[in-house]
Every structure is written in C-alpha cells, then in structure tokens.
Structure prediction request, 225 residues.
Amino acid sequence: MDKKAVHDRIVEIGIVPVIRASSRREALMAAEAVSQGGIPIVEITMTVPGAVEVIRELAKSNTSNILIGAGTVLDAETARRCRDAGAEFLVSPALNLETIEFAVKENMLIMAGALTPTEIVKAWKAGSDFVKVFPCGQVGGAKYIKAIKGPLPQIPLVPTGGVNLNTAAEFLEAGAEALGVGSELVQSEALKSGKPEVITETARKFVEIVKATRTRLAPAAASLA
Prediction:
C-alpha cells in the first residue's frame, strides 16, 4: 500500500489501535480481534517482545488486509528494521527528527509524537504526516486538542492517551483527525484470559462512535466549506 493509501485508510477508519502485549501470541490475537471488530489497522509497539518479528509475521500472513504500523519507534535504525519487516507506517511517542527524516526519505507515513504547540509545529514542519499528541489525557484531553486546533487548524492531530468510549466523540468534535487507542481497546485482561471477543466487541463500539460522530459533524463541516 502506498503512502497516500495508508493515509486515507487511517483517516477513513479513524482509530489506530495501539497494541501493547506481553507476548507474540497476545499481540497476534489482538491484531485479529480488532480487525474482526471493523478496525483493519494495528500499531505494534516496540515494547511487545519480539515486536519486529511480530510485524514480519503479520505482514507475511496478512489475509485480513490489515494495515500494519510500528509504534514506540524511537530512532531511525528501529524505523528501518520495522520497514524491512513489513510495517507500512511509523508512530513515535516523542519527537525524534531523525526518524521523521528517515520516513520522509523512504516515502513512508509517520505519526510523530509531540505534546506542546512548539513540538507539534516542529514535527509537522519536519514532515510528519500526522502529529500524535501524547499523553493527551493528562493535559486536558479533548479541550487541549480544541485549543491547539484553534491556531493550527492545518495540522492533523491524533490524540493518544485518555481516549476511551466515553471521550472518543469529544476528541473528534474537538478536531482530531483520528484517535490512538491503547488499553481502553486492547485490554490486557482479555488477552491474558484468551477472550479476544471482548476486544472485538469494544472495537465495534469505537467504530460506531466514529461513524455516528462524523455523521453528526458533517453538516457543520459542509457549511464551513
């Protein structure tokens, strides 16, 4: 999938599941579970044991056409290893200009992490396709996104941290392009107990919230066009 198609898929679905798991088996289970719930996107974080090999395995046996991303990418070398394993986009929790430079050079989509307005602008100007605002919940949640979008409407923000079933609509209403969702979707207890159906059902709920919220916001967006 080319970079534009990756971008469009993320915008279309509106949810990027952040998979943190204690084993390869759990990570693969989580990927299948969110896909079954209508979210064909996964961000395999580098905190998963053998994360690069998990990405490689998903890429080789990708019968569900899942968009595979690599998360918690802290440097260009890790980014290269993830790309070579089959990752189609990169996500970082913090601003690392070398990683952005690598992604731009390789024509690979990147969602660089930033928190302050200065970091957000710096990431965007460096070439980040989306800016992951993390940890968003700890600095005001949806209200923070709305405040940032006021002077910076052109920067596509993906809040992560503090996004759950109760707040997802608020983040979209505030102007988020998509939502990064971790433990509120990929529940560790569901993985440990071998109950992926819990994650699948939660994924369906997030998908419905995104659809309903965007439908509600569409008339207002059209009037501003």
